[in-house]
Amino acid sequence: MIRELVLSLAFLIAVCGQFAQAVEPSERLADPVLEERARTLSKELRCLVCQNQSIDESNADLAHDLRQLLRQRLVAGDTDQQVLDYLTARYGVFVLLDPPFEPLTWILWLTPPVLVIGGGGLLLLRARRRRPEPAVPDLTGDESVRAALLLDEPR
Question: Phi first, then psi: what are they for 57, rounded to 5°?
Answer without folding.
Answer: -95, -20
